[in-house]
């Protein structure tokens, strides 16, 4: 509260600051700032969008097919992560998941959600929600909801990785496979992700409140970081899965849904944000390509293991038939010998 009071004093002493920050010089400094903290329609953005602007008019009349597609993607993202969550829970183990994959994936998702929230166009869409209908507002913010759901689902994987800390699963381990992560590794991953989230939120708030003219550059920086981490994210998981020669707790159904879904998701964001939002949708193109490589590797290992199990079952059946035939022959010989012995007596 002390910081807020100090800010009020500074703004009251210099109305120019108020004009630059809120774009509303007609209101008194104290009244305007109090309205802002009370949730009134004063948005701290580089420019205050006129509710009658073309952007707000466009959002006021959402396209039904586009809205339906965006809503379908939100539900699809949520459903696509369920197989991974359930696989970890049912196996009672997160074995097979690289801690670096979890770390990079969570931080990349954090960068992505911060990116789309700080993009000027997203800021404008949020500002327009004060003047348009609830349905139009919901439709206009579905792009943000898509990224938010993805961030939440991957964050849940991070916590499941810690809760169901890797314990040996039923799969046969290949000699020379990488050692399993330690409990300390899991704690470091979770703590790093939490600290990273807090730092990104604080820095974004600083740009939002005091450097709004640099908010677009900060948003692009966040998007670049998200894309770079997405590229690196799958490298440790590809390496871990290759060394283990098993998918273990990694869900193939999840990847089957998400690999093509990443490209549909990117197209949906590109339609909403345009070329200027490349830092938001570009990351999902990169993710889709790398996840496709991991999916191909996982399917290969699963097909190999299935063939191996079928051969083992066939060998077991053959061995059982041979044993039965041998026992049957011995039984027949025993009966024949008993009959001859009875005749001799």
TrEMBL record:
InterPro entries: LAAT-1, PQ-loop_rpt
Transmembrane segments: 59-79, 100-119, 139-165, 186-211, 217-235, 281-301
UniProt-recorded name of the protein: PQ loop repeat protein
Keyword Isomerase: no
Chief localisation class: membrane
PANTHER family reported for this sequence: PQ-LOOP REPEAT-CONTAINING PROTEIN, SEVEN TRANSMEMBRANE PROTEIN 1-RELATED
Record lineage: Eukaryota, Fungi, Dikarya, Ascomycota, Pezizomycotina
Pfam families according to UniProt: PQ-loop
